[in-house]
Amino acid sequence: MNDRIKATFEHLAERGRPALVPYVTAGFPDPELTVPIMHDMVDAGADLIELGVPFSDPMADGPTIQHANDVALGKGMSMGRVLAQVREFRGQNGRTPVILMGYANPIEAMGQKAFFEAARSAGVDGLIVVDYPPEESAGFAADAKACGIDTIFLLAPTSEAARVDAVLELASGFVYYVSLKGVTGAANLDPDEVGRQLAALRVRTRLPIGVGFGIRDAASAKAIGREADAVVIGSRVIEVLGQAESHELGRAALKTFLTDVRKALDELAAPSGRTGE
């Protein structure tokens, strides 16, 4: 398990509070704002940062994040620029884990060996690569581990037993549970059903479990945070940034939004540790 990710979850488990994990697409709304936004997230209470690598066909993402990918690519974003942004962030923050979320094509275009070397040097802690199926990713996960980088796989309500087995065999850092059917930004979040699914997973793994998709405000974050070890918020972050009249107002609105979510999650903190562990 990556040192920064491990230390973060251990610290939060001691406090009995789930991690706040906001997502932003690198380069949205402008490449010059990515690193400042990452620092804003930390200032507002983020425990880990999920940084999206722009791709032209983000199949797991809904319209909001698809649009953010298009904007970022239109402004010249690439894997190389994303890693440069992580390196810049690391110049001021050596503590907060950074997880890259994206697709196989940008990695393959760079070459896996070159990518791992660059990611390790930049300070990347974890990877979510949507279209690397766990059944075919043993070598990729081993190479990532050798570089001190966790591989994080998605599980969904529709995941069959064989897929769950494959994910739990290879996963490190944490397991990412998709809270509902569909793409990012979908609705109809059911915290009770999520709780039942997480309880079944906890019998089979000691890894922290993060939950994403469908979490849009402090109330839904708190409801999921009662069961999960991490709460991931993506589409709503992009909406807050994109709907503002200016970049400055967008950053301010995002800090307010995340601060409210963090306060809600702080209310779950308990000295006895996470519920269900």
What is the approximate shape? globular
CATH architecture: Alpha-Beta Barrel
Helix share bin: 40-55%
Q: Which fold name corresponds to the CATH topology?
A: TIM Barrel
Strand order across the largest sheet: 5-4-3-2-1-9-8-7-6
Structural class, by secondary structure, is: alpha/beta
CATH superfamily: Aldolase class I
SSE succession: HEHEHHEHHEHEEHEHEHEHH
**Count of discrete alpha- or pi-helical segments spanning 4 or more residues:** 12
- β-strand percent reads 5-15%
Question: How many DSSP-defined strands?
Answer: 9
Question: What can you see in these coordinates?
Answer:
The chain has 277 residues and is α/β, with parallel strands linked by helices. It has a single domain (3-266), classed as Alpha-Beta Barrel (TIM Barrel). The protein has 12 helices and 9 strands. It has helices at 3-15, 34-43, 63-74, 79-90, 104-110, 112-122, 138-146, 161-170, 191-202, 218-225, 235-243, 247-266, and strands at 19-25, 49-52, 98-102, 126-129, 150-151, 154-155, 175-178, 209-212, 230-233. It has a 9-stranded parallel β-sheet with strand order 5-4-3-2-1-9-8-7-6. α2 (34-43) packs parallel to α12 (247-266) and α5 crosses α6 (112-122). The longest helix is centred in the C-terminal third of the chain and has 20 residues, at 247-266. The protein is globular and about 45 Å long. The two termini are 19 Å apart.
